[in-house]
Description:
By secondary structure, the protein is an alpha/beta fold. It has 13 helices and 13 strands. It has two domains: 5-53, DNA polymerase, domain 1; 60-383, TIM Barrel (Alpha-Beta Barrel). The relative contact order is 0.14. The chain binds S-adenosyl-L-homocysteine and iron/sulfur cluster (SF4).
Amino acid sequence: MQRLPGEWREWLTARGERGFRGDQIFAWIHKRGVLDPEQMSNLPKNLRRELTAAGLADPLRLSHVHPSEDGTSKLLLRLADESTIETVLLPASARVHDADAAAAAEDEDEDEDDAAAEDESASPEAPTLPRIAVTQCISSQVGCAMGCVFCASGIAGLKRHLSAAEIIAQVIAGRRSLPPQQHLRNVVFMGMGEPLHNFEATVRAIELMIHPDGLGLAARRITVSTSGLVPEIDRLGAHFEGRIGLAISLHQADDAKRSALMPINDRYPLKALMASLRRYPLRRRRNITIEYTLVAGHNDSVEDARALSSLLSKLRVKVNLIPMNPIAHSDLGPPTDGRVSRFQAVLRNAGLLCFVRRRRGDDVSAACGQLALEGAEPNVRFLRSQPKE
Ligand code: SAH
Ligand code: SF4
């Protein structure tokens, strides 16, 4: 199911089938969300059998839906090897607070003057019902190898990469679960895992999502969030020519303190990361999103805010401050509201675009960083005790 239409056509002609069937198969999977060949009613029976024999099937099944009081819902999905992953659906109109994961995508809407949470895109003959735009936060790996100390996925460690088929099947499952008045508009790679550590599958999943004959998502409505894998940031920028939104998890503007929060900083320190952001082929009127999870005592002082503003001063960025969402096995937590406001004020006074993103869905542990591996024990390697400032 990770083939693009042209690849399906080749696959079919190599088997003596007619090439146009490839477009039908692609549309069944990606436009209509039908992954069982037996249900692809316009295909001949023998081809359906052939597709089943070749292994075409839904690579995951919906295990649980956890609706949150604020309209967010978290889907627990079970993969063929019984691993579980989570994906979160964030409808715009259910916004009680500013969303964290939804924010990167929604802010781009503001840039484009279609910030309305609802859009009037019903067909002319139907009564015009406002449709609610949904942002889906998806996972790219089972767990994560990056070991950020404030993140549930990081504490669990990496179990495995997701395939492109599994990544796209999450989006299909998410879209299928939406009520009729909601439609999927934005996808953010801010669930479990580091998407650029699983580069090939991430790129292929994006290619599938933006194909006009499939899900048809706009490239600018997809955001890849990364802890800062420099070579892959370059490759992503080059591959999609800057059309994909980029979010960087920065969390500290000082190398030593950043390394204590995010071990990846030892490999790609700030100088290298900042240089890669300057190289990113950013489109007109777009910003790179800087995510900054505020962890009390680790990155929330006025000095930290000043260091951050000077680091970002010459870049086209927008900063999202996310007070840390509490996670199991960690005593790290968010600063007080007063400290959050003071931090934001320093950045705004320095002329930076800066928003505070309050958590959503935390009554069902669906907020950023809270997506966890079912039954996972923490990987002690990542439970480093951190010095307070
Ligand atoms: N691995 C990628 C994408 C997934 S994490 C990345 O790190 O960017 C998505 C966002 O959630 C990141 O900005 C991450 O730093 C943030 N995050 C992780 N744990 C968090 C927590 N406990 N509270 C708030 N934000 C958290
Ligand atoms: Fe991985 Fe992102 Fe969590 Fe860091 S914050 S451990 S990179 S998922």
